Records
---
Amino acid sequence: MTIELPAPRSLWVQTAPAPDRAGRELPAEADVVVIGAGIAGLTTAFGLARAGKSVLVLDAAEVASGVSGHTTAKLTAQHALKYAALASRKGAEAAAQYGRAQLDAVEWVAATASELGIECGLTRRDSFVYSTDAAQLGRLREEADAAAGAGLPADFTEHVDLPIATVGAVRFADQAQFHPRRWLLGLAEHVERLGGRIVERVRARGLDERPSPTVHTDRGRVRARDVVVTTHYPVFDRGLYWARLDITRDLVVAGEGQAPPGMYLDAVTHRSVRGHTEGDRHYVIVGGEHYRTGEPVDVEARYQRLAGAATTFGVTGVTHRWSAHDMSTLDDVPYVGRYHPATAHVWVATGFGQWGMSGGTAAGLLLTELISGAGHPAAGLFDPNRFDLRSSITLAEDGVKVGRHYVTGYTRALTATPAELAPGTAQVVRRGTDLVASYRGADGRLREVSARCTHLGCVVAFNNAEKTWDCACHGSRFATDGSVIQGPATRPLPPA
């Protein structure tokens, strides 16, 4: 049965309109330029503005309109089955440091929201990672022991209040959920009250690091003492981040219904469930159906499967659907710190996996300390320039994966044949020596742009749900007119 789905739109973005900051004058200099107005960037900007630094925040779109506005918005230190693997790979102390950073982030948001009077629907909830498969019981118990050993409020429970049969779960007590865009709009307002400046609709194009950091944008340049890059996927091609991040796209549906009392994640399928109250309306939010960004998959069919699953959890009709990037690092610990080994004043935060609400906050708190000249006990764990033998193996595997996508993209184009496209459909075809991305809109108009991603030349694939051209090599996304939606690409696809 086909479920009627709305056009893609985020519940968070729709229910929290933002002030228009477009067209604001770009200052010539600032102590700190933060590129990216999501949760990591605004947390950093707030901390540094509060410390007395002049801060400028730049965003290619608007505050909290990117990944931070397209999340399930669980604010928790429970990051799937994280701690047993982390302790095994990096040691018990690393697991404890990671867990403490996430718990501190949760508590900082709760305390700061209360202090500043930001109404963001922050509500305490227990968080559960469960399974319906008895074969997973050992993993669940091992994770509960490892998380408790790392100092986290974790235990194993056989009781999971869901309308499906489960075998047990790892429970983290007293975590939180919130409205992420309301939180970030409030934080942005306080950045400005502290003297910081936020300029939207300005895209960073380049960066000179010497003699002093200078950001080049499509509206001029800005000098700074420090530059912080929190664009989710780092926009500047240095530090080999394009080779050290794996990309996943997550789908989310939401609809009215009575949600179960906690926050839930299936250990095997990674299906996520939580509730949200908006005025007198109660929503159930269900996430899942992950796939690699840019893979030629039927995204619309995946939304249908997710919507079908949502009915199990109480959704009576889908009112919203959205999706977002996730970036994972080689060792599943975010990169937070100096952008590359040779820099002293360029910083980065990226690679939060599926846990950007606590992870991005933790990154902002860490960067605030580092840029202010203070030490931090977890700085080594999150250092972007760390490396180990196991990571080199993962890097090689990812390189093979990217190479496969590079080659198969061209192969698909070579074997495709031009055809009359129906409204709302698209294809990549070879036309002479060119690869062309062709899309016919609902109005019947044919839009054609180059099918070669402007980042490193991989071939894009059509996302039939969001109506975008996506690159599987490094996750860049473009509108059907070629304009950049998400990086690492900074230049649009040129007209065919």
---
Amino acid sequence: MNVKDFALGVVTGVAAAVIVKEMSNRVVPYANPDNILENIKSEFKKQTPIDGSWIYMKTENYSNGFTEIPVFKGGITRTVEGEVENFEFAADARSGAIVNIEQVK
């Protein structure tokens, strides 16, 4: 095997990897759930420190009565004046916008 054949193989492999990556981004058009969680946590941290957080990595369908959208569901726990507060949220899987948030008692 000469250097020319080896270089051709490397270039072909890199090109194939780029194409596969681009196609996978088109097939799964959802935002990264970790990034969505970090954005929600940063908004909560503006008011008070948080104790814990979680997010499901799989999407679920959320209906508001008119339409269904894919969402990531998750939660935030914080302590305010000695009281533990738990919140559950649903965030749009495409944009990351919160579509529902509820305090769990």
